[in-house]
Amino acid sequence: MPAPRRAAIAERTLRTDRWWVQPLVTVVVLVLFIAYSTFRAFQNAYYYAEPYISPFYSPCITTRCEGDSFPEFFTGPVWISPAIYILVLPLGIRLTCYYYRKAYYRSFWLSPPACAVAEPHRRYTGETRFPLIGQNVHRYFLYAALLFNLILFYEAFRGFRDETGEWGHMGLGTLILLVNAVMLFLYSVSCHSCRHIVGGRLNNFSRHPLRYRAWGLVSKLNARHMQYAWVSLLTVALADFYVFLLATGTITDLRFF
Amino acid sequence: MTYDATFRVWRGDAAGGDLQTFTVAVNEGEVVLDVIHRLQATQAGDLAVRWNCKAGKCGSCSAEVNGRPRLMCMTRMSTFAETETVTVTPLRTFPVIRDLVTDVSYNYEKAAQIPAFAPRPREADGSHRMQQVDVERSQEFRKCIECWLCQDTCHVIRDHEENKRSFAGPRFLIRLAELDMHPLDERDRRDAAQDEFGLGYCNITKCCSEVCPEGIHLTDNGIIPLKERVVDRRFDPLTWLGSKIGRRPSR
């Protein structure tokens, strides 16, 4: 029902275009990704195929990890997958990301499902209260993500070895891990919080020429933040799936040299 | 080339109304406002519609065309199929006065509450000096023609009348951002943005940016930077600590 004194129009929306397509596609892709990544995170197997490690398990920080990819800090229970210890951080940056917030508020919470389409909720308080006020910690997840980006570059760099650990080789897996590291890095640095931190918080750019240039660069990347968000989501799943295929012996790595 | 189009136009007032169907001639190159004027001239002489410049600059002819907030003068008829029924309704978020005219005074009330520009003292020669790079971010928001399409489409008040008390709407959040980013302005608006103008209500679904006829990036360049500035002030312990021990550069 329209509020008092508003035009009495009963329809939830008068839009005639297929406004529901975009939220539907978002739901399908995100649900597929969540199902796949949850299965792989709990699987606790087939995440390492010398010299590659799945990005879902990187950094692998327990002594129960396969391979020797990263310093092992502690020994966890055998039934806990090493991925569980670390995935909260990549999950955190995506959950609190300004782009993904738009995507899931629209698609999952229908708040609103599309512009000028009425939402189904009676009350709305947005991000003013717990738990959604917690979205404001996004920059801390960004800091963690940048650390993860460095580790993923390190792991991709270690891909320039062969199965015996000898350096100076490269395979399709190296390329996949490298592209994944680049896309995740672009996703991190194109983030709105990053844009603010490098220079957006300043009011006098002319006094900070280097930060102004950095802000300009991040602003250009920021305009493509949505694209980086989706592409990096796909590359991380693809990189994991490639390692899975190698680890299960389904395929062998295509070696370039 | 002329053809007959089917228009459904909402007619009524605060007491009630409905969509009425008209068949009306459309000429090549016309926009929705032309057709509404033809309706007014030929079939519905008392049809109320607010308009002025017919050039997308005055922001008067805001309405909803096929359910989407648009300026009628900037909506070409060539974007619709000749057989398509075009539905024109008033802005749904505001009280209707009559037909396509709404009472948008909510926006002016919010505008009056925004703390005014508070520049630092003038320099010794009586001037205010600032560099172009320092003001160009704010200048994007000065393109606003106050058509209120962003306010109309924002679900925070469109779907929740009760939020009008505590939420100023995207147009005024970018006004706050514009002033907060201004190199001469000395007033800190971050607490007010959060507490008095309801910045936290915005869940950045970007509909305001989608409907802006001036192409202003309200969310990416205005509201999100303002949210980040509020985080500096309210939610980031490191930034807070840095400001207390004087390790943060001046803004």
Question: What do these coordinates show?
Answer:
The complex is a heterodimer of chains A (257) and B (251). Chain A starts with 20 loop residues before the first helix and ends in a 10-residue tail after the last helix. Chain A is mainly alpha-helical. Chain A has helices at 21-43, 82-86, 88-96, 98-107, 138-157, 172-189, 192-200, 209-222, 225-247; strands at residues 48-49, 52-53. Chain B is of the alpha+beta class and 251 residues long. Chain B has two domains: 2-102, Beta-grasp domain (Ubiquitin-like (UB roll), Roll), CATH 3.10.20; 105-244, Fumarate Reductase Iron-sulfur Protein, Chain B, domain 2 (Orthogonal Bundle), CATH 1.10.1060.10. In chain B, a hairpin with a 2-residue loop joins β3 and β4. Chain B starts with a strand and ends in a 7-residue tail after the last helix. The mean pLDDT of chain B is 95. Chains A and B meet through α4 and α7 of A and β2, α5, α8 and α9 of B.
Question: Which properties best describe this structure?
Answer:
heterodimer; A: 257 residues; mainly alpha; two-stranded antiparallel sheet; 9 helices; B: 251 residues; alpha+beta; Ubiquitin-like (UB roll); Fumarate Reductase Iron-sulfur Protein, Chain B, domain 2; 2 domains; 5-stranded mixed sheet; 10 helices; elongated
A few lines on this structure:
Chain A is mostly helical.
Q: Biggest β-sheet of chain A, characterized?
A: 2 strands, antiparallel
- Shape category of chain A: globular
Provide the CATH architecture of the largest domain in chain B: Orthogonal Bundle
Number of helices of chain B: 10
- Which sequence of strands runs across the widest sheet of chain A? 1-2
Greatest interface and its participating residue counts? A-B, 53 and 66 residues
Average per-residue pLDDT of chain A, rounded, comes to: 93
Proportion of residues in extended strands of chain A: under 5%
Major pleated sheet of chain B: 5 strands, mixed
Order of strands across the main sheet of chain B: 2-1-5-3-4
Span between N and C termini of chain A? 68 Å
Low-confidence stretches of chain A: none
Poorly predicted runs of chain B: none
Radius of gyration of chain A (CA) equals 22 Å
Strand content of chain B: 15-25%
The helix/strand series of chain B, from N terminus to C terminus, equals EEHEEEEEHHHHHHHHH
